[in-house]
Amino acid sequence: MQGRIEEVLPDSRFRVVLDNGHALIAYTGGRMRKHRIRVLAGDRVSLEMSPYDLTKGRLTFRHLEPRALGGASIARRPRR
Q: What pTM was estimated for this model as a whole?
């Protein structure tokens, strides 16, 4: 399912509103934590929902917004 992050909550949880209007609490999956993918309010995300409790879910992917061409590039730190 897909939705939008409405609010960042304590303990690395997020309030997400799905495209159909359903609201739930979600946490980041292990791969997102492992690769340090930062999730902010307003981001579009894909998530998995628990079939037993429809108010909980796990974020699995953060969708990037299309960027305008010609903008300043992000300075990257050298890898160690």
A: 0.76
